[in-house]
Amino acid sequence: MSNDPNIMMQILQFAVEDPVIQSSKNMQRMATSAEKKDWIANSQIDGQWNASMLQVTKNMVLDGKSDEAIHAVTDDLTTAGYTVQQTRNQVQKMIDGAREKFGGKMPRNTANVFAMLTQDERWSQVFALDELHNRCMIIAKPPFQTGDPKYFKPRAVSDNDYTHVLMWIERHWGNVKKQVVIDAVNAACDEQRISPERHYLEGLQSCDYNTDCFF
Amino acid sequence: MSHPIFDGLKPNKNTINVFLKKISKNWQNSDAFELRFLGDHKTPYNCRFELTQFDEMVDFIIGMNENQLNCYVVINPIPINAPRWAKDEHIQCAHYAFVDADERGAAERSRNCDIFTIDMEVVTGTQPFLRNHIYFGFREPFSDMRQWTELQKQLGRYLGTDTAIHNPSRIMRIAGTVSYPTERKIKRGYVPEVARLIIGGCYV
Known about the structure:
- The structure holds 2 protein chains of 2 kinds.
- A 4-stranded mixed beta sheet of chain A has the order 3-2-1-4, covered by helices on one side.
- Chain A has helices spanning 5-17, 24-29, 34-42, 49-62, 67-74, 84-102, 110-119, 159-172, 178-191, 196-203, and strands at residues 127-130, 135-138, 155-156, 193-194.
- By secondary structure, chain A is mainly alpha-helical.
- Chain A is elongated.
- In chain A, α4 (49-62) crosses α6 (84-102), α5 (67-74) packs across α6 (84-102) and α7 (110-119) packs across α9 (178-191).
- Chain B is an alpha+beta fold.
- In chain B, 25% of the residues lie in helices and 29% in strands.
- Chain B has 5 helices and 12 strands.
- The chains are: A mainly alpha, B alpha+beta.
- Chain A binds chain B through residues 1-6, 8-9, 11-13, 15-16, 24-25, 27-28, 121, and chain B through 25-26, 94-95, 97, 112-117, 119, 136-139, 142, 147-148, 150-151, 154-155, 157-158.
């Protein structure tokens, strides 16, 4: 369940209109606007690579694409005589610059970081509040960590985790203040409370005893 | 009297279960299944089941399929209060986009589509050529049904599949049931087959 119908529409409109780029692999990687398509084509013309790539990265940053998604498109635009790694190095600088300047569509404030942590499928199951011990927990493998999610052991949130979340956001979205991240993470934990005792008590059936007779 | 080539095939209860559970995974309690049963020279039969009647429904499907009726379900959820034989205007949201690849070569093309995530594939037949239905699940329910219709048309055009599959109340074959071809189709080389379900590259 991971397709976005609006994005599907954009890609399909693009695909049906332009038979030259019907190859599905290219389609996956292609930008979704006609403007971007032109810049991609221009990048293959001698002397226009740099200016075109700047536009491509700018558009994709504004579209909210991750660094990896941008590289997936631009890797294919490596021109003869250069390696993919060289393209990546160049493009990464452009991405960083674009993120610094435009920072994606949404401002990186506490509300938006909180929305990302609670709604993005990569983050929405990560944080929780252990109500018994009143501590913030990481209960599923966070996107910044490697390893098999099956073997992830829940643990309390540490200072380093805030830093990792911060770095992840910087890599995928743009610069953000650490205090914003801390507040958003704490609020995200509060959103998902774990309390076996409360769940147990809430699950008990009501009884007809008159409690006055006990006292 | 049954046609001799229909003998020996049985609907697969587990596959029916998984398929219907999957399409209704994110439905609301107020949503219901609408089933249709069609057969050569038989009167179409239509019925509706709520989510709470799931097991009853699966048994009912098996019974109907064993009576050599082709079994279909409306893929989009039907609001419980919608009139029987729900129409397009009663459908309020979609959880899947899907294509029906019923022409030679279309099934392979659809199966190899890698621009979107395929959630499941129903192989509706392999003789005289491979035919399938491909389902692309949505991250969230999609309630703009005009846009959904447009998406279905575009998807059909792109994959070269049946472009008529775009009405919100579209029925699709239930995976796990036996498909009984009409006499005309039998003459063209079609045979009865159990519609198989593939999720994540594995048969269910």
